[in-house]
Amino acid sequence: MTRRAAVLISGRGSNMVSLIEAASASGFPADIALVLSNRSDAAGLQRARAAGIATAIVDHRSHPTRESFEQAMDAVLVEHGIEFICLAGFMRVLTDWFVERWAGRMINIHPSLLPLFRGTHTHRRALEEGVLIHGCTVHFVVPELDAGPIIAQAAVPVIPGDTEESLAARILVQEHRLYPHALRMICDGSARLENGRVVFSGDWSGEGALRSPA
């Protein structure tokens, strides 16, 4: 069964594009049925329209409270029959009400290997801490910021001379691969949420490793 998914964006929507491209493939278990933004000038809206995806704008600035903004968003999502939400550069902190309403049905991609470097400026902080491996994480959204059950992670080596920009660029490549993979697993049932943790079906190999320095 194909799940109707919405992607929430605030800007260019590069991860949104990777999700749309993946979902266009035959047999993908999710259909990107809506792209919703809190900003009318979000560049990703035009990219979604060009791909034939329905779009909606719920401007947070036109609502007196976070609650009324989220209620308006929720109404649009329900109107479009959305079953699953993917946050992709959606730059609004969500209230507990919205998170709990969509509990187990909303995922996010974060540019670090959680639980390391929650919040913002993850690449700068990784370089300041001197870590040798950095990456990205797809996780379920819970009321606590960047603390939800982890679905998938990808790691990249931090190399001498890296800047925030060079490290971010390499991690973004992995984000574009990881997010569709995580959405597929959740929607086809090979990864499922049970008692606050993600449980996986199928066999795992423990042979692979990323080392830095190689």
Automatic annotation (TrEMBL):
The record marks 146 as: Raises pKa of active site His. N(1)-(5-phospho-beta-D-ribosyl)glycinamide binds at residues 13-15. One of its GO terms (molecular function) is phosphoribosylglycinamide formyltransferase activity. Its EC number is 2.1.2.2. The keyword ATP-binding does not apply. Keywords: Purine biosynthesis, Transferase. It catalyses: N(1)-(5-phospho-beta-D-ribosyl)glycinamide + (6R)-10-formyltetrahydrofolate = N(2)-formyl-N(1)-(5-phospho-beta-D-ribosyl)glycinamide + (6S)-5,6,7,8-tetrahydrofolate + H(+). The keyword Transferase applies. Pathway: Purine metabolism; IMP biosynthesis via de novo pathway; N(2)-formyl-N(1)-(5-phospho-D-ribosyl)glycinamide from N(1)-(5-phospho-D-ribosyl)glycinamide (10-formyl THF route): step 1/1. Gene3D superfamilies: Formyl transferase, N-terminal domain (3.40.50.170). (6R)-10-formyltetrahydrofolate binds at residues 66, 108. GO terms for cellular component: cytosol. GO terms for biological process: 'de novo' IMP biosynthetic process. Catalyzes the transfer of a formyl group from 10-formyltetrahydrofolate to 5-phospho-ribosyl-glycinamide (GAR), producing 5-phospho-ribosyl-N-formylglycinamide (FGAR) and tetrahydrofolate. Belongs to the GART family. HAMAP family: PurN. NCBIfam families: PurN (TIGR00639). This is Phosphoribosylglycinamide formyltransferase. It comes from Microvirga makkahensis. The gene is purN.
